Amino acid sequence: MEDLHKNQVLLLRLLEQNVDSPLTIREIQSALDFSSPSVVAHHIQQLEKKGYLKRNPNNPRDYQVFLTPEKEIVVLNQYGNAHCGPNGSILDGNPVDKIPIASKLLKFPANEAFIVSAKGDSMEPRIHEGDLLISQKSDYPDNEAIVVCVLGEKVLVKKFFRQNGKITLFSINGENYPPIPVSDDDYFKVEGIVRNIIKFN
Which residues are catalytically annotated? Predict the structure, then answer.
């Protein structure tokens, strides 16, 4: 933390202590006795710029703190094609490539990221064959999240929906691909949530 202003060190520690119940800008100002909310905002921006902090752009109070800053360029594992159609391939955990990505493009920790290449047309027009899908490792998606998942021996990219304990997978191209109900007898696992799409078409 040698590159941080003393106020940024204090701010970072305060953010880390309150990550489960984030403080407002005013509360941070009061706790650290900063002169104004704009001073708080400035130091938060500097922490982000220096790689010590990442905030969800849709919810600034949803953030991650890094005591060791992430590198500007991180290398992510790319796994085999994830099918966006009726057939799939097994995501066997062996990367087929490694792709450098600017860490600032990720709004979550880089060590939670992986890449798959989309195959098929069931998620058109949002996702096309050949697009690279940067995903965050997670098995707790919200409803309507686009997920990389394993169903039986198939790896799929679908919209996730759970209701009354039952999971259904949906395609964006719903006219050609009907919903897929997941039964209790099926092997099913969410590998991650799609966070970024790198378009190639």
Answer: 122, 158
